[in-house]
Structures are given as C-alpha cells and as structure tokens.
Amino acid sequence: MSEVLGRQIDAAVTSWRVPRSEASWRARLFVAVLNLVNAALRRSVGVGSSKAFDVVSARKRAKFLENIIAMVPPHTHFDVAQNAPVSGEWVSVAKSPAADRTLLYVHGGSFILERSDVHNALIARICKETGARAFILDYRLAPEHPFPAGIEDVKAAYRWLMKEGVDPSRLGIVADSAGGGLALAALTSLRDDAVPMPAAMALLGPWVDLTLSGDSILSNMQNEAMVSTLEGVNICKRLYLQGHEAVDPLASPLFADLSHLPPTLIHVGAPEMLRDDSTRLAQRMRDAGGQAWCDVYPRMPHVWHRLGPLLPETRCSIIEIAEFICEMIPEPHRLQKSGTG
Questions:
Q1: Cys-Cys link to 292, which of 114, 116, 285, 331 (CB 3.0-4.6 A)?
Q2: Consecutive sets of 10 residues in the chain, 341 residues long: mean pLDDT of each?
Q3: pLDDT of residue 58
Q4: Inter-axis angle of helices 25-44 and 312-328, nearest 10
Q5: Phi/psi class of residue 23: alpha, beta or left (left: φ > 0; alpha: ψ in -120 to 50)?
C-alpha cells in the first residue's frame, strides 16, 4: 500500500506548482482518523452493510460531521441571493482586498449531498486570498432531481451572473468532486451555445467519468479516506443517472469536446479513487488545444482543501489556487500596464 500512496504519477502530467514530495505528519495522522470515521459513517447509512442505503440519513450525518470540523475564516459574510434563478448565497470576506473578481462555486457531494460548512469554509478561504466574492450555488440533488438537473442549474446560475453584469474575463469557476463534473459539463454546453467562457477554472478532485473506467478506481480502492467504497460510488452514480447512459458526454464530461475551455488548474490526491479522472482530464484538455495543469499531492485525501488550516498541505493548496486565479484574472492596473508597455 505504501508503494501506491507514494507512487509518482505518469510523467505526462504537467503540474502548475510541483507539490512537496512527502506528506506532513499531521496529514498522515489526520488521514488515518478520517479512514476510521468514514468507514463508520458508510456502515451507518447502508454502504458495506446489510442495511438499505438511506439518502436522508447520509445527508444528515455527513453534514453534521462536516460542520464539526469546518473552520470558516473570521469576517466572512453570507448573503442569500434574492433574485437568482436557483438558490444560493454570496460570500465575501470583509478584510480581504477588493479585486473585482467573481467566483462561481459548485460544491461536491456525490450528486446527492447538501452543501455544508466545510464547503463554505473552502470557498471563503479562496475568496480571502483572491479578494473575490463568490456565488455558492445550491443545485438540485439526486435522487429527487436526477441528471441533468444539476447541470441545468449551473448553466442557469452562470447565465444569471452574465445578466447581472459580471464580466466573463473577471469570472472564475471553482468546483470540487461531483461539482467538478457538473461545472465542466455545464461549460461545454454553454460553449456550444456561444456563451462567453470564464477566465479560469479550478477543479478539485473532479468526478468527470461516471463509467468508472480509470485504473485508480480499483488500484486505489483500499487507499481512499474520503470517497466511499466502490459500492458507494456505484450507488451515487445510479441515484444520479437513474438509467441514463454514463457514456453521455454531459454525464461524463471527460469524454466531451474539451476545446475552447478556460485555463484550468486541477488538484487531486495520489491515493484517490478518482485520481485518474483528474490526470486524464488534464491530458485531454491539453490534447484539445487548451491550457490545463494537474497537481498530484502525495497521500492527500479527496478534496483535502476542505480541512481548513489543520494541515500545511491545505494551506499551501489554497494559496496555489488563489495564485492561479489571480494570474488568470489579474488586477485591472496590471492589465493597463501590460497594455501600455
């Protein structure tokens, strides 16, 4: 197992910033605890046990546990978006410098789980580092609202931001896990409708292949601390698709036309079951003529960015995401200098 956890990923993977080669002792300890907690949570909702899977219990228990460990930065403000076509909130951090950047955040949760305070804390920390405000989208969840409801909600939110006067050149997308798949699918559809693309996209452990064809689905099955078991992944997939073909490029945007999309930074942990979704996505985006980077962090669990300031890897990765967004959406005065140079 240690060989798999420390394995160097395919040399074709191009990093934005090469992560440190070893995980910190805090990360190793925390991942061990997460393994125990998530194993107990899975059994309690019917994954890996004789009980039937209970969506309502899964939502309540996952949100309760995530809210316990969430650390939203001080001076963070949440305001309900009154006129949005889908429910959501604006988030901003009062003491961060204003930079005229807007982010659209699509949270993860295997298509079935609600947004929790760990998601709020994640996007708030990115807002703090970038001086941005963010719209957090509460898209409709499966199984009550199966494919493609979530994608349509992301598209509606994106179009609404344009209508509200957000300049696409000042807009970035941040999405994690299943939210990454929804965001990517929505952008490919919007691009086909000739809607202007955002300036940047950051995808954290995106789930973009519902056919589960990546080698890491099986090779990392025993290493995963955050994502459910193969049984759990298949349950969520079935609840979301409800008979729709997983090979549909909207359901599995890894197989979509990935040309003319914004510059994209992808983060993934080496032990993740979904690791190969990320590495293959970066390669396919580059093959389509786009700019894409994939940073593979050693021993990091699925979307470790949600763990707040607990781990040095979390702090470093949040700063890296912020630097990427700021480079792709520079300050207006930097644009003026480059234009007059």
A1: 285
A2: 42 67 70 65 56 83 83 93 95 81 97 95 95 97 98 98 97 98 98 98 98 92 66 92 97 98 96 94 97 91 84 89 96 58 43
A3: 85
A4: 90
A5: beta
> How many alpha carbons fall within 13 Å on the CB side of residue 93?
21
Residue 138, Cβ density class (10 Å: 0-12 exposed, 13-18 middle, ≥19 buried): middle
- 122 falls within a domain: yes
Which amino acids are annotated catalytic?
177, 272, 302
Is residue 337, in this structure, part of any structural domain at all?
Answer: no
Q: Note whether residue 334 is domain-resident.
A: no
State whether the Cα torsion 296-297-301-307 is positive or negative: negative
pLDDT of residue 39: 61
Name residue 176's beta-bridge partners.
204
The total number of residues written for the chain in this structure = 341
In the DSSP assignment, the letter for residue 170 is G
* H or E element, residue 206: none
pLDDT of residue 122: 96
Supply the pLDDT for residue 7.
43
Instruction: Give the separation between CA 329 and CA 159, rounded to whole angstroms.
Output: 19
Report how many domains make up the chain. 1
Q: Is 182 exposed, middle or buried (0-12, 13-18, 19+ CB in 10 A)?
A: buried
Decide if 40 contacts 261 (C-beta within 8 A).
no
CATH of the domain at 121: 3.40.50.1820
How much is the pLDDT for 250? 98
Q: Which two tokens stand for residue 175?
A: 């999405």
* CA–CA separation, 173 and 32 (whole Å): 31
Residue 45 confidence (pLDDT) = 58
CA 289 to mean position of chain CA atoms: 23
First and final C-alpha spacing in the chain: 54
| Phi, psi for residue 77 in degrees, rounded to 5 | -120, 135
Give me the domain span that covers residue 40.
2-7+17-329
Cross-strand bridge partners of residue 78: 91
pLDDT of 228: 60
Tell whether 279 is covered by a domain. yes
